[in-house]
Amino acid sequence: MAKTPLPMKPTGWFQVAWSAEILVGDVRRMKYFDTEMIAWRSASGQVTVMDAYCEHLGAHLGYGGTVNGETLQCPFHGWQWNTEGRNVCIPYEKHPNKARRIRTYPVAEHSESVFIWYDADRREPYFDVTNVLTGFDDGRSAADYYPAYGHSTLFETALEIHPQYVMENGVDFAHFKYVHKTPLVPEFTRHDFEAPVSYVDFTIAFEDVPAGEVNSGVQAINSGIGVAATKSWGMIDNRTLTAVTPIDDSTSDIRFTVWIGRKPHDDSDQPTRRALEYAEAVIEQFQNDIHIWKHQRYSDPPALSPSEFKGFTAIREWATQFYPADFDCRKATTR
Ligand code: FES
Ligand SMILES: [Fe+2]
């Protein structure tokens, strides 16, 4: 185990749950970015993620807090807080306490997932988290895929992993042969690290095809450092979402979701057996990555080969934009 030297409070979008885990009326406890938080879904369906402690006398709202229409009621003295974290009712006073507010986090909900925007300086979101099913601008939508939750997801908690380790997979052509047992080394056809949302495309062959003949590939859209969406072509139609969310200064949760393309004219919510088997194989490949990441020590500066230099340098430079301004990667030490 090796604690990462990289900052564990990066800026960006981070998945904190799958949508189905927070039904109307649910209050869910979570800890991310060293902060006790709760997520609750109001009667109208809106998810709010906020700090867990009541601004009155500090009850933890995740232990007995109840959803009341569009507000959350504290279990201690019944004060009610709205979806903006504002106090809207003190049951035994004429007026609410307008001055006090519980910190809330911007929420995005799509791709069967709930994301929060985290920024240590509390800036508003300045980029979006890409919808994995519609975001590749190819006319596809959720209707073209079997639902993933309950069928093809992976959750691992409290691993000594930094989100950047996972993003570095997107430039790491050499690991495919060893970690994923692909016969050919993938070829990157696009590396675009110009903006907070970055793009990586590569071709890959999982079957033995004559060298130079490519039969499949992957496109990836990284929405900041916490969330990566992929679309595959040439193999069974699938999409994946990889999300790494820091818990404290050394550990993160990983969520991985796989959607398999529907068989034509199949409206079922239940994926076919073949789809499930395929999703399982994709998850197994991802577990091979996790096995490396969770025992890895961040190497800085790394011993890169000539053909690795450009990709790794680009992604590590790109990553620094999500870290506090005073973070100096040259001073980050791993020993
Ligand atoms: S502590 Fe929440 S209402 Fe008193
Ligand atoms: Fe990998």
Walkthrough of the structure:
The protein is α+β, with helices and mostly antiparallel strands and 335 residues long. The chain has two domains: 12-109, Rieske Iron-sulfur Protein, CATH 2.102.10.10; 133-316, Naphthalene 1,2-dioxygenase Alpha Subunit, Chain A, domain 1 (Alpha-Beta Complex), CATH 3.90.380. Helix content is 13%, strand content 30%. It has four helices and 18 strands. It has helices spanning 163-168, 175-179, 273-293, 309-320; strands at 12-18, 27-32, 35-41, 47-51, 66-68, 71-73, 80-82, 87-89, 104-105, 107-110, 113-118, 153-159, 187-192, 197-203, 217-223, 227-233, 238-246, 252-260. The strands form four sheets. A seven-stranded antiparallel sheet has the order 12-18-17-16-15-14-13. Strand 17 (238-246) and strand 18 (252-260) form a beta hairpin. The protein is globular, with a radius of gyration of 21 Å. 34% of the residues are buried. The model has no long low-confidence stretch (mean pLDDT 94). The structure holds FE2/S2 (inorganic) cluster (FES) and fe (ii) ion. Residues 169, 175, 179-180, 289 line the site of fe (ii) ion.
